[in-house]
Write a structure and sequence with these properties.
Elements (H helix, E strand, L loop, with lengths): L10 H13 L3 H14 L4 H13 L3 H14 L4 H14 L2 H17 L5 H9 L1 H6 L3 H13 L8 H13 L3 H9 L1 H8 L2
Helix pairs in contact: 1-2, 2-3, 3-4, 4-5, 5-6, 6-9, 7-10, 9-11, 11-12
Length: 192
Amino acid sequence: KELIESDIYNNNYLFKIIEFYISQEKYSEALIYLNILVTNLDDNVQIYTLFAFCYGKIGLITEQLESIKKLQIIQPNNIQLFFEEVDILFNKGSYLEAFKLLNDLITFYLENNAVDNLILTYLIYFSNYYFLLGYKTFFVRHIIKIVVSKEFSVLSKDLKEKLFEFLEEKKLSPLVLFLSKNTEALKNYDTI
């Protein structure tokens, strides 16, 4: 555990120590060395990813969220980090804040015709929160907009099947099918 003074600034050595502690599930110890390493490599993606991971493992949700926000600054185009923030907010119990961010992300994707496998995966992943919070209408709107989008045809077959299984389970298939084929009904549903 003791470091030779000249090795303390050897980043590779510190990464090995951190990896060792993480492999031993000693996350608090890994955080000690991450704090040393971050002084040498402040904007390093790997360091903040490890911070977020370790903080999450020991239940320091606020610190985990701060690490994710730092990663968002370093990698602003990594949309997955914003979905991770949503997940952390839900786990923290900040449901309305999480739902607002999730809704904004999905709306942005839909408005920019950027529907892809990632957005549908996250929409399905977070779907239980929509129902838990009583936002089934928002969920159905997003699903319909995805189903009628031109990008829907290029989404993975497995993901589409997973979506339709989920809709069947929630007894939403007939509603989604009806609304996706009836634009007047969809307009009325959109005003609910």
